[in-house]
Amino acid sequence: MAIQTSMLHVRVDDDIKAQATEALAAMGLSVSDAVRLLLHRVVVDQAFPLELKVPNAETRAAMVEADQMTRTRRARFATADELFADLEKKRRK
Questions:
Q1: What is the number of alpha carbons within 13 Å of residue 7 lying toward its C-beta?
Q2: Does residue 62 share a domain with residue 88?
Q3: For the whole model, what pTM was predicted?
Q4: Inside any domain, residue 76
Q5: How far is Cα 40 from Cα 3, in angstroms, rounded to an integer?
Q6: What does the alpha-carbon distance between residue 66 and residue 32 come to, in Å, rounded to a whole number?
Q7: CB contact at 8 A, 12 and 2
Q8: Does residue 9 form part of some domain?
């Protein structure tokens, strides 16, 4: 007896799809295989197989800062020395 299947269409960013396809291929999986595995785990566990959390205020601020840095193509620090100095200062607190 043949198993009936259904088609699932998902919209995803082209870059994410390409990167995921490459990473999954390295694991011997296709994107379709990965989606089937995801859905199987949802059925078996009756839960989403990844821990999802609402980011706290500090994480949200860091996400906004990272987005701004990406858009402007500027880092918070002009040099690596400035970055390390800031890390050391925060470590001493």
A1: 1
A2: yes
A3: 0.55
A4: yes
A5: 15
A6: 31
A7: no
A8: no
Note the pLDDT of residue 21: 96
Compute CA distances 61 → 16, 55, 64, 68, 72, whole Å. Answer: 23, 9, 5, 11, 16
pLDDT of residue 57: 93
Joined together, the tokens standing for residue 31 give 């994107």
> What is the secondary structure of 18-31 as a DSSP string?
HHHHHHHHHTT--H
- Residue 28 corresponds to which tokens in the numbers above? 């011997």
Structural domain total, the chain: 2
Q: Across the 93 residues of the chain, what is the mean pLDDT of every consecutive 10-residue run?
A: 88 96 95 96 94 89 90 84 88 81
Does residue 2 sit within a domain?
no
Any domain includes 26: yes
Do residue 63 and residue 88 come from a single domain? yes
Query: Would you state the pLDDT for residue 70?
Result: 86
Strand, helix or coil for residue 4: coil
What range defines the domain where residue 40 resides?
14-45
Assign 40 to helix, strand or coil. helix
